[in-house]
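Progress report, Aim 2. The chain analyzed during this reporting quarter is listed below.
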Amino acid sequence: MISKLKKISPLVMLMLLSTLSCGVKKNTTTPIFRHINLNFGERIELGDNFDDKEYLVNIIAESHFLKSTYFVGAESIEIILDDKKNVSKIIFQYNETTEKEKKIKSYTEDFGTPTLESGKAIWNDGKTQFEIYSLLLNDKEVIYSKLIDMNKN
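Predicted structure tokens for the chain:
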């Protein structure tokens, strides 16, 4: 087996390793939601083209943040677009009263036991990855969740 590995070019090995490091292996059979329903009948879904939805966001330093009139339940929602202007990630920032462990427990009831990696709880159904994590901002823990289109990554 090792002699066969020696025959793999460094470029192919690098591509293989980078592919393996893109997200957690599939760890749930329950489909993860790929969209968010917004106020006024609007909807954003991973993989959809965002060209006709620009009116939903404020662009701040080249980042797309949903206008607060369109959603509830999060402090902010950032839409990440790929080079073709398709939605590749949706990042939710929660308010200061949100408890990370309660969020994780809630989604564990829906999707099963997550993979825990670097302080993140991660679920992956093969098509979508969902993460819950926290970052320290101005000495305060801020809770986030992120939907990632695995078809793009």
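The longest strand covers residues 128-137. Helices lie at 2-6, 10-20, 100-111. These observations will guide the mutagenesis work planned for the next reporting period.
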